[in-house]
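Researcher: Please predict.
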Amino acid sequence: MIKIAVDGMGGDFAPEPIVKGTLAALEKFDNIEITIFGDQEKMGPFLKKHDRLTVVHTPDYLEMGEKDPIKQYRTNKELSMFKALKALKDKEVDAVVSAGPTQALVVGGHFIVRRMPLMKRVAIAPIIPSYDKRGRILLDSGANVDLRPEHLRDFAVYASVVAKTVLKRENPTVALLNIGTEEGKGRELDVETFKLLKADPEINFYGNLEPKEIFTTEADVLLSDGFTANMVMKAMEGTAKGLGMVLKREIKSSFISKIGALLMKKSLKNFKRSLDASEIGGALLMGLDGVVIKAHGSSNDFAFFNGIRQAKEMVEADVINKVSEALEKKEVEEK
């Protein structure tokens, strides 16, 4: 049985979508048990009894606009997010899912769960939509602004394991986000990382990838520092939202357009789903010594359900142990 801890109070609209997504996951998957940490009084209207659900009353929780998560951790370790992470640290659960503040989850992950022994940094790695509907791993999407080439190489190793074991890519490819496809393009970080990835026999290196190809590329892992990848991710989200607004405006522009929209209702629904990250799940905090999934702060119950599904799949694939083995092998080879 896979045991998952849920931060019941994390998210812009918590606790309703969190509780509903949790209950939906319990109904869908019969091999999971969930412990939800949160204010029982606030969660109560949405809770239902379930033999695989445990509720831990935790009245204190982080606000989504929290500016100083380190101070919060030092002064109150009884917050719902931190208690869920502590359960992972103590091996009471196999994974944690939270839609709470991203930096607080990164801070809690560092201080409570800790990094894997051979990982020097932690990356935020969402699975983003793609044209072929299979998704792509984008990292680091915001945990680190300053990285060294060896950090990015470690991220590439980790993400390749996830792509192979969870996304079922037979020989996953890693692309380096850059301003051009030619070798030698970009900052010193990009040039040195390119050399490191190209020379690594354990990494199937695609080469440089321009951001304009993100939605259509065949590469499975899209790699860059936290500033660049975060900008890319937010640009994708904004573009998807803008396209939806333009499409809606044009449909309303005339009677014939409205009739056409009715005839294309199924196609328009599929179009929306193709650009919707909630169809895939949350972001994995790669580098921690345990599975931690960051669901989007504005997650609805379906998006949070997918975050739990994603955590389940990570545990089933034994990702943490397989990454440890890959990093240990690389360390031995380098010595």
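Model: The chain is about 45% helix and 15% strand.
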